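Quick one, T. Sequence first:
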Amino acid sequence: PRLRELVVGKLTDFFPSIKVGKVFRVAMWIFSEYCLTEAEIEGAVATIMTSLGSLPFVDEETLEKAENTNVQQTSKAPAVLADGTYASQSSAGAGPSLVSKDEAPSLRSLLLGGDFFLAAMIASSLTKLILRLAACKGVSADKINKYVGECMHVFCGIVRLGMSGVTPSRMDDDAQERLWLCLMMLQDPYDAKMCEIWTQKCRQSYGTLLVQKQKAIAAQAEEKEEGKTKIKAHADDLLSFRQLRGKGVVVTEIEDEDALDMSRATGAAEEEDFGSRLKRVMQLTGLSDPVYAEAVVTVHDYDIVLDVLLINQTNEPLYNVCLELATVGDLKLCERPQNYSMQPHASINIRANIKVSSTETGIIYGNIVYDNSQGGKDTNSATTEGSNMVILNDIHIDIMDYITPATCTLLQFRCMWAEFEWENKVAVNTSITDPVAYLRHIVSCTNMECLTHIDDEDGECGFLAANLYAKSIFGEDALVNISVEKQRDGTLGGNLRIRSKTQGIALSLGDKITLKQKSTETAKK
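Structure tokens:
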């Protein structure tokens, strides 16, 4: 705090020598937040006005020339090429440049070059400075009105410049809306509530955002440090291939390592209680079928392990019992099915390994084929020539098993959003009436990270827009943009847009959201 006056004074002196738009934005933000006295505010306003130059930004003659040039550029005449085909050609070249090559870059030249994000920052900074000046004691109303009139004149000039079409790019809707908002604010600079929002609440919100970013950066740094310290394998460790091993190989320490690897793949290395394992049991056949089957599905990175329990419910032994499986999607069976013999009311456990190659919803289906002791056929099951068959229920592999929350910067999110070509649009259809609760529900259902900071203590809101990001174990990115609005009847309306580089993850994630968004159990939690 004791260096505030010195920093503001130095910044005022060196402001005309700034040449980069990003530095201009930071400098004007410092002016708007840390100029507190009447002299500092007047000096900052005068410095910005001097860098902007005189009004209007574009005279009538230049505007007329630019309009004529635009008309000439749009008029095109057909031309006949040497091979007899037609082609269109422009009858005029590029329009006149508003910025002289010899002119040094300044605030005015950047505006004439089409930097309207900087224009929105100019309007916000000048508005904050005027509001702070109006809050100072001893400042006359005539002086406030004089500064308000000058700022309004500048804002109107910027809007006219952006909408005239003489700049390389037209003013976007966000910058235009920001300028109109600043104009409305300057109509009543003595509004205490709005002044508090602009001069105090905005700084508090920005401080909260910085704290969240610092926490995210610290968490990423800790994860990197943990990843560096952990040694997964040494460079001289032996590699063992089970597929190349013969049947007569003696069991050694390598066998123990292989068993440990398999336990890790099946999740057995992690301590799992019996109750959580029962939640993953899926019934594959009916209770009245000759062979009862149920499976426990365990997903571990690139592997899916099915622990299938088969029970012979007949009073006769069964021979050549074979579990035949097939897959839909990017799933691949690693082993061939084997035949087993089962005594009456006996049970066996069969383990099937499946490899996963991409992030999309997969389906595992199949049947159980067996021969009874008489070699005949069972009337309660589907039959083939000389064999009995029990058809299994389908097993759907959830896409959420491959998706993990991840973070990225806003710039990275925008670049990926523009790059990814697959998009799936899902309409909002839910019984939840609070936009924030709906956002929390979608985040928990999709296992994604919310990149937009949402504060639950801010009270109710009528609309919400947020970005979600996740990464699969295969390195695929999943982007979700949520735009919801509270309707007049109290329900939520809007859309969720999903983008990814591959079609499978976009469609699978859309199906998951469509299925889960109607439920309110997660939102209540």
